[in-house]
Design goal:
The chain is mainly alpha-helical and about 900 residues long. α41 runs antiparallel to α42. Pfam families: DUF7824, DUF7825.
Length: about 900
């Protein structure tokens, strides 16, 4: 045999052997025999391993089609190990190990370390640092990374993924007999990883698990190890302080604060960090600021904090929102001044900054402090500062300061108040529908992604109708990328069923995306024509919740549009509003009907009925002129429109209140909304009953509320009555988010009646700040429109507080916020009606604001809330110069004691009795 033949034979034999090895490895991987896989890999050379990888990659692609099958779960651990071992690039191996499809069925860290352990240490270091750079959500095994660090001898990574993995590993002491402190003490990288804890965001709350502040917790362990010398004390203190200075959530910072407290800093360590404590007391979250304030206070009392530094601290703290910190600072100043009279020249002007505090109690505390120590001030400049500060006190305290401080009497000037309200909302005309199919597709895509307002929705809806009528194929081509991303695009819907199971005629549209899903699915052929016909034949059936008439009437129009898109596209929609409020100009509707007549297009019943509800009838001259033009069309719809325009708009329906814990409104039938509309829209005129409909429903998405208001522009009361019970939950049941509709309700055209005012009242007493802010916005918008009845709102609030539906402290926060915008006269008008009801209960000792018998007097919790309301009322009276009498106020003001209710009642009485100011 020649040499060439021998060589070829040897190569063939080697290829055959390699093929056999590859087949054996792939077979073992497919069977999930991890031990056999490891054995085969141990006997293979690097070239043989690399030759196996294409087969393993193909197997991975195959398993992706059935990721959660039993075969995939069995195969993946072996594939995970084999794929890592058969690649030579560090980046490729790291990508394989952390791949998403391998995440839930991985090889054990011990197996991976075995098959990778024979590689070069530098290569292993490259792999582990690439793995550590992955986001924490990739769930890369900490045991694997730690093992690679050990094998390579490289510096330990301090990335978020590695540090979180290390923390979880150390915290798992419930599985072992040793403690967190023992495991930390044995860790060779303790100093580096503990230092990384202070640099990793979001890790603070994890340190409280599993033992919290107990003897086996992280805070105690770190403090003990620092005391033992295993951790550098200076580095630990610096790390804690730096982490607190960087800020974060209160829950997270409290953990680092506990670590710092457990370190038990000496007075000298505290003194060296005086600037840090000052910064924390100024800007940190409340718990951290309180600690920093206490440290600085101790230094000041020990004489280790100069008066100038204490004055700087006082300037920063006095205008923090936490009254506890402000009061503590004033107490601290009093203690320092009692020990060091020479500091009065610097500290009293700083304390006088509190004369401008929004809380009159704080002003009075500061004034008492100044009165007590003003005799120690000798510097002319300090006295001048005190004199100027007196001008910021409320009138009663200002008069007292003039008398007790010996400053020159101030010449009272008449109060000239200018009410500041937002500009009344101005309706915005809708822009025309998108001119091209591509522009329409872009707008629909945006609406599907993030929703939109009434204008964007109506424009896109009208555009969809217009372009379907104009050129369906071009429209579908433009919409193809949008449709491809929807869940129903491949013919499979929820729970693996055909999408027609979901769009079955009972589909509820709960947001903008749901509306366009229905219409796009219809255009894409995913809804049967029979389903569309069945859904379009709406009947006036019983409704099971308060929202159902609004929700189903909105849906009826969409189903009708969907049916016409499939069977007989309309040239455009008749009911597209002219303005963003939902109103439609009568002349514009006449022009649209004329175009329909010339084109011979069929008018859709619900679309035309919605147009009638939206057409503006407030301008009688314009309505009569449009009615004449409509009659001249000589069509059925033209005659119906003419009758509608010449018929006087019916007044609000008969209403009555029902009251238990909460106050609700029931409405009678609205005849005009039942006789002249198609059956699908007649539920809008049905009576609103509190007792007939059930409480809970699926209409939880707040985005759809704006479209309900656009159903009945000019009739906000009909919508508010159906939303009232839901809005009441933000105050009565501590719900969240239901008050977001209130600004839109206030902006709606038409009279704001009893239901609208009750909605605003509940919102002002909401549990959550964002709901109270929405109610404040609504109140100010109503006032700006001239639609706010302050007497009605005040009386409603008084009754709600008495019944316990609204807590007075929450209400006080809301009205204080509204008054701070400059609407002092408006808020006084509201409180003028609410307060006498509450003061009467306190004066007689009958039903208190919680709805129970109150015999505790002003010291009770209900009195505290009323004291806050009196404070707001007093500030409004002082700013506006309003004078007069408030029923039952003197009874509260004449009580003994110095509770907040009593002091604020006296302040309000004094403000109302002031002379020389304009009423």
């Amino acid at each position: 045999m020649t040499a060439t033949a021998a060589t070829a034979t040897t190569a063939t034999t080697a290829t055959t052997a390699t093929t056999a090895t590859t087949s054996a490895l792939v077979e073992a991987v497919r069977a999930g025999r991890t031990a056999d896989v490891v054995s085969l890999l141990d006997g293979m050379t690097d070239p043989e391993r690399r030759s196996c990888f294409p087969e393993l990659k193909a197997l991975r692609r195959e398993l992706r089609t059935a990721r959660w099958s039993a075969a995939s779960r069995r195969t993946h651990p072996a594939l995970h190990a084999a794929g890592a071992a058969c690649q030579t690039g560090a980046a490729a191996v790291a990508n394989w190990l952390a791949a998403v499809d391998m995440r839930w069925s991985q090889a054990s860290p011990a197996v991976l370390l075995h098959v990778l352990g024979d590689r070069d240490p530098g290569w292993l270091a490259d792999v582990v640092h690439r793995l550590a750079q992955r986001p924490a959500r990739a769930n890369v095994s900490y045991e694997l990374m730690a093992g690679l660090v050990r094998l390579s001898g490289c510096p330990v990574p301090t990335t978020e993924a590695y540090v979180l993995g290390w923390l979880s590993h150390i915290s798992g002491t419930w599985q072992h007999r040793d403690t967190v402190r023992d495991r930390l003490r044995r860790d060779p990288h303790l100093a580096e990883l503990v230092a990384a804890l202070f640099r990793t965001d979001g890790i603070g709350t994890r340190l409280s698990w599993p033992a919290g502040d107990g003897p086996d917790g992280w805070t105690e362990a770190l403090a003990r190890l620092t005391a033992e010398g295993a951790l550098d004390r200076r580095a630990m203190v610096d790390g804690c302080v730096a982490r607190l200075l960087r800020g974060g959530t209160p829950a997270e910072l409290r953990v680092f604060l506990r670590i710092l407290q457990n370190l038990e800093l000496t007075r000298e360590e505290e003194r060296r960090r005086t600037p840090d404590w000052t910064a924390l007391a100024s800007d940190a979250v409340s718990a951290v600021a309180s600690y920093a304030q206490s440290v600085l206070g101790a230094l000041a009392l020990d004489g280790k904090l100069p008066p100038r530094r204490l004055a700087e601290l006082t300037d920063a703290v006095l205008f923090r929102p936490e009254k506890k910190l402000v009061r503590a600072q004033l107490v601290l100043l009093g203690k320092v001044l009692a020990r060091d009279a020479t500091a009065a020249g610097e500290l009293l002007p700083a304390a006088a900054q509190a004369f401008g505090h929004e809380d009159s109690d704080v002003q009075e505390r500061a004034l008492k402090l100044v009165e007590r120590h003003v005799g120690k001030v000798t510097a002319t400049d300090a006295r001048r500062q005190l004199t100027h500060a007196v001008e910021r006190l409320i009138p009663t305290l200002r008069t007292r300061a003039v008398r007790t401080l010996g400053v020159a009497p101030l010449t009272p000037e008449p109060v000239v108040h200018e009410e500041v309200l937002p500009c009344p909302p101005v309706p915005v005309r809708l822009a025309p529908a998108p001119g091209t199919a591509v522009e329409l597709a872009e707008e629909v895509s945006a609406l599907l992604a993030s929703g939109g307002d009434v204008s964007a929705f109506e424009r896109a809806l009208d555009g969809l109708v217009r372009h379907t009528h104009r050129d369906r194929d071009t429209l579908l081509q433009a919409l193809e990328p949008v449709i491809a991303r929807r869940w129903w695009a491949d013919g499979e819907g929820l729970r693996g069923r055909h999408s027609d199971y979901y769009f079955d005629g009972h589909h509820e549209v709960r947001d903008t995306a749901g509306a366009f899903d229905l219409l796009l699915a219809t255009l894409g052929g995913q809804v049967r024509t029979t389903t569309l016909h069945r859904a379009a034949r709406h009947e006036d059936t019983d409704h099971d919740c308060m929202h159902s008439p609004l929700a189903r009437c909105f849906e009826a129009r969409l189903w009708e549009v969907a049916q016409r898109l499939r069977t007989d596209p309309q040239p455009f929609l008749l009911a597209t509003p002219t303005w963003d409020t939902g109103l439609l100009e009568p002349g514009e509707l006449v022009d649209r009907l004329d175009t329909y007549r010339r084109l011979g297009a069929r008018v859709s019943a619900v679309d035309f009925g919605q147009a009638l509800l939206r057409v503006r009838r407030g301008d009688r001259a314009a309505a009569v002129a449009a009615a004449e033009q409509a009659s001249a069309l000589d069509t059925e719809e033209g005659r119906r429109l003419a009758r509608w325009l010449t018929t006087e708009t019916a007044g609000p329906p008969v209403s009555r209140r029902t009251a238990h814990t909460r106050i609700l409104v029931e409405l009678g039938e609205v005849p005009g909304l039942r006789d002249d509309l198609p059956a699908a829209l007649r539920p809008l005129g049905r009576p609103v009953s509190v007792h007939r409909e059930r409480w809970y429903c699926g209409h939880w998405n707040g985005e759809i509320r704006q479209h309900w208001l656009a159903l009945l522009p000019g009739r906000p009361e009909l919508v508010a009555a159906r939303l009232l019970r839901e809005v009441s939950t933000v105050a009565v049941d501590d719900g969240r988010g239901a008050a977001a509709v209130l600004p839109r309700l206030a902006e709606a055209d038409g009279e704001a009646g009893e239901a609208v005012h009750l909605c605003v009242a509940y919102g002002l007493g909401a549990r959550h700040a964002e709901d109270r802010l929405a109610a404040v916005d609504a109140l100010l918008v109503l006032a700006a429109r001239g639609a706010l009845d302050t007497d009605r709102l005040g009386a409603d609030l008084g009754q709600l507080v008495r019944r316990g539906a609204v807590k007075p402290v929450r209400l006080a926060d809301a009205v204080r916020t509204a008054a701070a915008t400059g609407a002092n006269a408006t808020i006084w008008g509201v409180l003028r009606q609410a307060l006498p009801l509450l003061l009467a209960d306190l004066s007689t000792g009958t039903a208190g604001p919680t709805g129970t018998t109150d015999t505790t007097g002003p010291a009770g919790p209900s009195a505290r809330g009323i004291g806050e309301l009196l404070a707001v009322a007093a500030e409004c009276a002082e700013r506006t110069g309003i004078r007069g009498d408030l029923p039952h106020l003197s009874v509260a003001a004449d009580r003994r004691g110095s509770s907040r209710l009593v002091t604020q009642a006296r302040r309000l009485r004094s403000a109302l009795a002031q002379e020389g100011a304009a009423a």
